[in-house]
Amino acid sequence: MTEQTTSAAPADTETLEPGVIVVQGEKFMRDAGGRLVPLDQVKPMDKLIDQTVRKMMGHADTLSAQVGRFKAHSFNDVAALQALVGEQYGAKLGGAKGNVTLTSIDGTLKVQVQIQDQIAFGPELQAAKALVDECIADWATGTRSEIRALVEHAFQVDKEGQINRGALYQLRRVAIEDPRWVRAMEAIADSVRVIGSSPYMRFYRRENHRAGWEPVTIDMAAA
């Protein structure tokens, strides 16, 4: 059997609704299992939901493409400005890690470019966990419950399968003199690996130079 979609429909035939296909002159919609369901057997509410989803996704795809282009243009503009400053003054615009803050002359608009390191943890982390477990076992009767909870939280992966970095750093701030604990904290520090970096751009505005900055929300992280 051959299928006819809206994009392949001849100009002299009726315009099909999005998601509707024609097979041997009959209208169908494909379900999530890949099966063809006759159009007259699709519930009206399911059709309405399908139409709403397709309409919203059309807008989302367009907006995503616009944000992607805006992201590329914005980073290119900053790079061009950095190159111009470097050429004219022989100095780099921005910090050692590439962070840059640009403001308008009146001080009411601000653009920040921040470079965030991507962190991973090496095998030293397992050694740290073993040392911490030894400490907890020996301190069984005297260990405060909050220390135990912090240890469990620190070595537990988050929903994305990544180590909870914030909890690990908080654990390192706990001052305990047990040599095993000290070695464990050193092992945590040694386990940190910088495996890459990601640039982020953030925008802010304020009414005047005395007012606080308000973010202009544009999520470009996944564009």
Explain this structure to me?
By secondary structure, the protein is of the alpha+beta class. It has 2 domains: 3-42, no CATH class; 95-223, no CATH class. 41% of the residues lie in helices and 22% in strands. It has 5 helices and 8 strands, in the order ββββαββααααββ. The protein has helices spanning 44-89, 124-138, 145-154, 165-172, 179-191, and strands at 3-4, 20-23, 26-30, 36-38, 100-103, 109-121, 192-205, 214-216. Strands 1-2-3-4 form a 4-stranded antiparallel β-sheet, with no helix packed on it. A 4-stranded antiparallel β-sheet has the order 5-6-7-8. Helix 2 packs antiparallel against helix 5. The longest helix has 46 residues, at 44-89. The chain is flat and about 80 Å long.
What would the keywords be for this entry?
223 residues; four-stranded antiparallel β-sheet; 5 helices; 41% helix; flat
Q: Determine the N-to-C terminus distance.
A: 39 Å
Rg computed from alpha carbons, rounded to a whole number of angstroms: 28 Å
Q: What count of helical segments does DSSP give?
A: 5
Let me know the number of strands. Answer: 8
**Alpha-beta classification:** alpha+beta
* Biggest sheet: strand arrangement: 1-2-3-4
Outline the biggest β-sheet: 4 strands, antiparallel
Task: Give a brief description.
This protein has about 220 residues and is an alpha+beta fold.
Topology (SSEs and partners):
Layout lengths: L2 E2 L15 E4 L2 E5 L5 E3 L5 H46 L10 E4 L5 E13 L2 H15 L6 H10 L10 H8 L6 H13 E14 L8 E3 L7
Antiparallel strand pairs: 1-2, 2-3, 3-4, 5-6, 6-7, 7-8
Helix pairs in contact: 2-5, 3-4
